[in-house]
Design brief:
With 163 residues, this protein is α/β, with parallel strands linked by helices. It has a single domain, classed as 3-Layer(aba) Sandwich (Rossmann fold), CATH 3.40.50. Helix content is 34%, strand content 21%. It contains four helices and nine strands. The strands form two sheets. A seven-stranded mixed sheet has the order 3-4-2-1-7-8-9, sandwiched between helices. A two-stranded antiparallel ribbon has the order 5-6. Helix 3 (96-108) links the parallel strand 7 and strand 8. Helix 2 crosses helix 3 (96-108). Keywords: Glycosyltransferase, Transferase.
């Protein structure tokens, strides 16, 4: 099978999502699958090397360590991945690369599988200037985050939730 993994976090960043993606890629390749990764570049340049497609992005480290954002634009690397025609797209993040995962899945008419690594409702207290300092505000934020998660996951064929 041709499998596309999409993730906002990849080498050289070190965190649980990156470790999970690296291990998944390695094991899928060990089983004979052709695997490519779509992730965010650490700069405002797009490039591909060794089956990893890096999309240009902006630094958002003032919001969260190692965070990056993409700007809406036509990306030649996305067209290349659509041309490659993966059999399945497996997204690992709900934010920047998820929209690309959904687009590629739709264009290639293949399943979109998603691994839900983080229960964001448990992290709202980290939001700067958030409402969670107030009891009612925390409920509103949790509901908003739960709605966002449900909206994203509703676009997928399958969801994997590691424990």
């Amino acid at each position: 099978m041709k499998i596309l993994l999409t993730t906002d976090w990849y080498k050289p960043v070190v965190n649980g999502v990156v470790t999970s993606v690296i291990n998944l890629k390695k094991e899928l390749e060990n089983r004979g699958h052709e695997v490519r990764v779509l992730t965010l570049s650490r700069s405002y340049e797009s490039y591909a090397e060794e089956g990893v497609y890096y999309i240009k992005s902006l630094n958002l480290e003032k919001i969260y360590p190692n965070a990056r954002a993409v700007l809406p634009h036509t990306e030649p690397l996305i067209r290349e991945l659509i041309w490659w025609r993966p059999d399945v797209v497996h997204s690992q993040c709900e934010f920047m690369t998820f929209s690309y995962a959904a687009k590629i899945s739709r264009k290639c008419q293949c399943p979109l599988v998603h691994t839900y690594h983080t229960v964001y409702e448990d992290y709202i207290h980290y939001l700067p200037g958030g409402l969670s300092q107030y009891k009612a505000g925390a409920k509103i934020e949790k509901k908003a985050v739960a709605y966002f998660s449900k909206m994203v996951l509703g676009k997928t064929s399958q969801v994997i939730v590691p424990t």
